[in-house]
Amino acid sequence: MQIKILELVVVIIYFLAMVGIGWHYRGKQTEESFWVANRSVGAFVNGMAIFATIGSAATFMGFISVGYSLGVTASLATIAGGALGYAFAAVGFAAPLRKFGKFTLGDFLSTRYETRSLKLITAILTVVFFFAYLIPQLKGGGLVLQFLTGLPYWQGVVLGGLVFIIYVTMGGMLAITWTDFIQGVVAWCTMSILTIVIFAQFGGVGNMLQAATAADPGFAISKLPFWSVFGYVLSIALFMGASPHVVMRQFTAKTPHAGRMSVVIAMIAMDFFALIWFSALIAGGKVYFPNLADPDNLVLYVAGQYLPPLLLGLLAAGILAAVQSTTDAMLLAIGASISHDIYRGGFKPDATSEQVFKVGKIAMVLVGVAAILLTLKPPGLIGVIVGLITGGIGASFFFPLWMGIWWKRASKWGGITGVLGGFIVFLVVQFGKLAPNFMGAVIGALTSLVLIVVVSLLTSPPSDKTVEMVSSLRD
């Protein structure tokens, strides 16, 4: 494959800009600045950063490939799940978590349920889930750089992975807030330009859909059974309503109101335009590339069909932005979980900020490199892998977080069994194939809810101090 010089130059400039932001914030740091950006981020910047964090390789490559392979309505199910999840976050936890004012999801659950063990359990599950989540994201980056430069896939994975490891470990949350904001704007604009170009090429939306249906009569029909689509929607919604990296974003907001508005902005940025992006890209792919071996490449081939070199380079930078804005947030959440929750929370309660930083940065480098190595052999469809991982996160954390905020009677043992029960049932149902694909998250989450309620009613209630704290968060 011939190297595309102009496109490559655009991507290199983008990479240097991201590393430059990390370098800018490399100076003396406090825990407030490194993990939660001094709690100083406004609603619009935070909203676009959340959009970028959620808008990963799954959004810009994986969910589009799901629609290409399994029918466009299967992709559009992700829009429904995203909208529902954003609504959950805006109404349910955005303002209360900002009032709580700590660093991680583990901080909240361990304080609310009055047990250090939940901090450790939450941290371990966060590391496991997010490490697995990094792999399909890095695959997306490798595919983009392979398409763009003609370099082997593995070199694209290594290059893209090293860039986000560098700027995250240097600058922490301040760096990724601004890199994610820029990445969100770049990704949103470039995908919108591509969609407009596709509409113009076909002469309108009606003509585009007509051509796609002629190329594939099953274009608009989901090949997933109803319960799998239902599970897919709820998996994404549960994930959006409880994911540790979305929770950390709430701790960065200037005020509780800014935290809530940031979720609303992210929802608008993602769901309305993703509906248009998905339809246009899948339709264009069906017409021009009806038999792709790896549909995760679809957006790249469609872009190559329609865009001139400069815009193609910008689009590639936009997809890389989507990849890195998710991986950097998850890598920071992993670093916070290992250093703040496991190291200080479990092994060395008197650890200094410098020691926590050192452990966190070493952990981020090691985890990032390990994820790069595992991605060198390309995994399966990005959208399917992400759908399964998000289901596990939602099953484990959604109801313990929500009931912790909105039910004062939720007890220590209710919280512990809710997290562990949801996780274990998700694993058994999903990988034991005891229900349609993606339904493991729904069954796991419902199990978590039942366990929280039943066990809480059978065990001692929380202390008056905790009940008072919950009331203050909801006020």
Characterise this structure:
This protein starts with a helix and ends with a helix. With 475 residues, the protein is mostly helical. The protein is 82% helix and 0% strand. The protein has one domain: Up-down Bundle (Sodium/glucose cotransporter), CATH 1.20.1730.10.
Overall shape: it is globular
Q: So what's the oligomer here?
A: single chain
Distance between the termini: 60 Å
Rg from alpha-carbon coordinates: 21 Å
User: How much beta, percentage-wise?
Assistant: under 5%
Indicate the topology.
Layout: H1 5-24, H2 31-36, H3 43-54, H4 57-70, H5 72-100, H6 105-112, H7 116-149, H8 153-202, H9 205-215, H10 226-240, H11 244-252, H12 256-288, H13 298-306, H14 309-347, H15 353-375, H16 382-406, H17 412-431, H18 439-458, H19 464-474
Helix pairs in contact: 1-8, 1-14, 3-8, 3-11, 3-12, 3-14, 4-5, 4-7, 4-12, 4-14, 4-16, 5-10, 5-11, 5-12, 6-7, 6-16, 7-8, 7-14, 7-15, 7-16, 7-17, 8-12, 8-14, 8-15, 9-12, 10-16, 10-18, 12-13, 14-15, 16-17, 16-18, 17-18
